[in-house]
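Why should sequence recovery work at all? Because a backbone constrains its sequence more than one might expect. Tight turns favour small or flexible residues, buried strands favour hydrophobic ones, and helices have their own preferences. The token representation captures these environments compactly. In the example below, the structure is given first.
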């Protein structure tokens, strides 16, 4: 090895058998006692969402606020569709910015929101699903993290096309997962169970039991008991200083030069000493799915992690980490069930890009 590494890299190629997406299998365990009796204030303002004859005032929720104290939400659908060999996440185009407690509404419409990749695969309706859930889009997109630390959610109503479904949730539940990310995990989930009576799951595939397969789903929900990071400012956010980008400067005290070390005769304990502090880029490239031609980004974010950025890698180094482990499930982009073991070229390039950032 001739290259002196600022970060030493262990690349673990995890060749695992393909399985359906299980990232939604981690339920939201925390609930606030007595929350069912709390009624959140319903905002009244100029912007509203209409679900049949129900008006939900959204208090300008479609406009990004002039403050860092918000969370950007959208309704997502994860498909587990073996009929069309499509096992990927799709995000709704309707996005809201929540700054306070209240009743909100989000919709996913197949006619508007399906990606070209999903349409090309033949997906056209809400059939064969892993989950329908609401999540923090900035976290999913890898563009930021909301200062909202916790809150509760209650599903007031769910509509499949124009048909009102039966909500079985009887009290508010935690909207955050154990990893600290706003990810409701439901109201539809083929692993942990759904809060909609008209949904049946078999072998971790969920389908609606309504008269016809819907193309659109609308979730009306109430957010309550919002807890914000105290460090998050309530005043308008300042424009970032773009005169110098220091976020990618890799600084640290690790002086190990691995091209000068005799790794062959080194025992594990000594090697671990030279590796220094390590961190795992987990639940990204080894998030198991199937299908050869799915978008690369869907594998990386399938289990709720954001897309890896150069700034994130730099942040690891600046925080004192010397070694980065990058596990990869190459089967994500193989059609191995049909004897095709070729790795998708785009997937290889994406892994190589992150590796290069770490070197």
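From this structural description, the recovered sequence reads:
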């Amino acid at each position: 090895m001739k290259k002196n590494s600022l970060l030493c890299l262990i690349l673990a190629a995890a060749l695992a058998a393909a399985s359906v997406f299980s990232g939604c299998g981690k339920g939201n365990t925390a609930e606030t006692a007595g929350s069912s009796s709390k009624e959140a204030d319903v905002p009244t303002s100029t912007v509203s969402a209409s679900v049949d004859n129900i008006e939900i005032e959204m208090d300008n929720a479609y406009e990004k606020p002039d403050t860092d104290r918000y969370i950007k939400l959208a309704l997502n659908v994860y498909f587990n569709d073996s009929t069309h060999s499509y096992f990927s996440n799709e995000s709704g185009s309707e996005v809201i910015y929540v700054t306070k407690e209240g009743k909100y509404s989000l919709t996913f419409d197949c006619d508007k929101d399906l990606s070209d990749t999903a349409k090309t695969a033949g997906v056209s309706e809400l059939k064969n699903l892993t989950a329908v859930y609401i999540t923090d889009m900035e976290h999913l997109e890898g563009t930021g993290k909301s200062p909202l630390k916790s809150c509760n959610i209650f599903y007031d109503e769910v509509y499949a096309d124009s048909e009102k479904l039966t909500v079985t949730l009887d009290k508010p539940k935690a909207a955050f997962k154990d990893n600290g990310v706003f990810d409701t995990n439901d109201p539809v989930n083929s692993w942990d169970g759904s809060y909609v009576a008209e949904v049946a799951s078999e072998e971790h595939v969920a389908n609606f039991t309504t008269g016809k397969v819907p193309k659109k789903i609308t979730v009306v929900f109430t957010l309550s008991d919002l807890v914000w990071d105290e460090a998050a400012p309530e005043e308008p956010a300042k424009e970032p200083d773009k005169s110098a980008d220091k976020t990618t400067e890799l600084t640290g005290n690790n002086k190990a030069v691995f091209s000068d070390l005799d790794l062959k005769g080194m025992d594990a304990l000594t090697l671990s000493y030279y590796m220094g502090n390590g961190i795992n880029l987990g639940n990204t490239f080894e998030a198991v799915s199937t299908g050869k031609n799915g978008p690369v980004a869907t594998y990386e974010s399938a289990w709720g992690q954001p897309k890896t950025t150069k700034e994130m890698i730099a942040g690891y180094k600046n925080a004192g980490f010397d070694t980065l482990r990058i596990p990869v499930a190459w089967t994500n982009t193989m059609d191995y069930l049909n004897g095709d073991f070729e790795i998708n070229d785009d997937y290889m390039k994406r892994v190589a890009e992150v590796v290069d950032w770490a070197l």
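A few observations help interpret the result. The chain has a mean pLDDT of 77.
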